[in-house]
Amino acid sequence: MSDATGSPVEFARPDYWPDACKHLSKRDRVMKRLIPQFGDSCLQSRGDAFTTLARSIVGQQISVKAAQTVWDRFARLPRRMTPANVLKLKVDDMQAAGLSARKIEYLVDLALHFDSGAIHVESWKAMSDEEIITELVGIRGIGRWTAEMFLIFHLMRPNVLPLDDVGLITGISRNYFSGDPVSRSEAREVAQAWEPFCSVATWYIWRSLDPLPVDY
């Protein structure tokens, strides 16, 4: 598979996935039903931190299809999708790709954080989920939900529970409460059985709503 620039994209798979599936199937009746439906499919990471976050900014508040179209246009502008190359782009060219003035500001701020070393990529392995979230939300245009998606899809942290995610709450409602409205506290209570693999359970809840795997 190739990205929008024609470069090959290599996907990584989490080592903990088989153990997580066994754990969840034992602890949770819904997971025991859902997991076998999706065979060998699992969470995958693109492996590039800057690209993952840039894609999340481009995709904010627009449909998945529209986001892909804008991303494809934007990704052709730099020779390679790097912070330094994005900082060299002209605003007019970025606007022509379909980016709003605000998203351009966000992408420039993201590139500045990476280019200046304000983001401690090399330290992330030793940092907790909350420490990384705190660092990421210091970038304009990145809130807690985006940071949690980054933890799940890029760093593949096993125990992230994104309670601000509409799909997760909807999926819990349908799978555990017969479609009745679900509060954050009720969702957190359901997720107690998922520990320490909330990311994996969340991925299967998403699949119960949309069988096509998501990647960021």
Overview of the structural elements:
It is an enzyme of class 3 (hydrolase). InterPro entries: Alkylbase_DNA_Glycosylase/TA, DNA_glycosylase, HhH-GPD_domain. Keywords: DNA damage, DNA repair. One of its GO terms (biological process) is base-excision repair, AP site formation. It catalyses: Hydrolysis of alkylated DNA, releasing 3-methyladenine, 3-methylguanine, 7-methylguanine and 7-methyladenine. The protein is mainly α. The chain folds into two domains: 17-41 and 160-209, Endonuclease Iii, domain 2 (Orthogonal Bundle); 49-144, Hypothetical protein, domain 2 (Endonuclease III, domain 1), CATH 1.10.340.30. Helix content is 53%, strand content 0%. The chain has twelve helices and no strands. It has helices at 17-27, 29-34, 49-58, 64-75, 83-87, 91-96, 101-116, 129-136, 144-153, 166-176, 184-191, 198-209. Helix 8 packs across helix 9 and helix 10 packs across helix 12 (198-209). It is elongated and about 55 Å long. It starts with 16 loop residues before the first helix and ends in a 7-residue tail after the last helix. The relative contact order is 0.15.
